[in-house]
Amino acid sequence: MHTGVLISYLYTYFFTIIFCIMFQIGFYFKAQKKISIRHFLWVYVFLFYLSLVYKMTQIATVWDIRRYETLIRASEINLIPFASEGITTYVLNILLFMPLGFLLPTIWPQFRTIKKTVCTGFLFSLAIELGQLLNHRITDIDDLLMNTLGAILGYLLYRALFKMIDKRNDIKHDNNSSLGIKYEAIFYLVCSFVGMMLIYYPALFRRMI
After folding, report:
1. Within 10 A of 83 (CB to CB), how many other CB atoms are there?
2. For residues 96 and 90, what is the distance between their CA atoms, to the nearest angstrom?
3. Which secondary-structure segment (H or E) carries 163?
4. Residue spans of alpha helices (H) in the chain
5. What tens digit of pLDDT does each residue of 45-86 get?
């Protein structure tokens, strides 16, 4: 991989995790039980995935507000379902959110119901789409629908995969494997999103290279 591209991804990852690390410092030491290394590693796999989502969607930041005379630009909003051109757009948006639907129930027992996982995928996608009102990207209902479908498919993949594993090894999920923080995953989603929105500054990276 080209050095500049690698640095770009690391730059995005840094701003994805910075507030998440603050959250961990504040709450991990107050956890009701010891944190397993496996859980800790899975968390950073999840955060790395989030950084890829932010990178691929070119998430908007507060620095974009000053670039336009008007905040809401009707020409950049599509509220008509299935109006996008080409199936590639649909497929890519589905694939983008499948890991979310898979990782949430894999890491956190609270998300081992399809309702919580899909609602989280929907709201996360909605936040990204609404954020794109700030920059020069289309806020598209098709993206929202396909992202949500991707979360559903990712969850179904999780169910199918772990059902096979349970049958072969006669094991059950350890529902006590994660922290005593009920909505830890939500904290990571919010903290990473806020970090990207408020302090991520793409122009600074472009100046550096």
Report:
1. 10
2. 10
3. helix 141-169
4. 3-27, 37-57, 87-107, 114-131, 141-169, 184-199, 202-208
5. 999 999 999 999 988 888 777 776 666 677 778 888 888 878
Instruction: Output the six-digit token pair for 131.
Output: 């954020």
DSSP state of 81: T
CA 176 – CA 178 distance, rounded (Å): 6
* CB 194, CB 20: distance < 8 Å: no
> In whole angstroms, what is the distance from residue 27 CA to residue 181 CA?
8
> What is the SS3 string spanning 109-129?
HHHCCHHHHHHHHHHHHHHHH
How far separated are the first and last CA of the chain, in Å rounded?
Answer: 16
CB 135 within 8 A of CB 68: no
* 136-175 confidence digits (pLDDT tens): 788 899 999 999 999 999 999 999 998 887 655 544 444 4
Cα separation, 167 vs 140, whole angstroms:
41
Say if residues 54 and 195 touch (Cβ distance below 8 Å): no
Question: Coil, strand or helix: which one is 77?
Answer: strand
State both tokens at 188. Answer: 């990571």
The residue assigned the tokens 């709201």 is: 123
This model's pTM is above 0.90: no
Bridge partners (DSSP) of residue 78 are 140
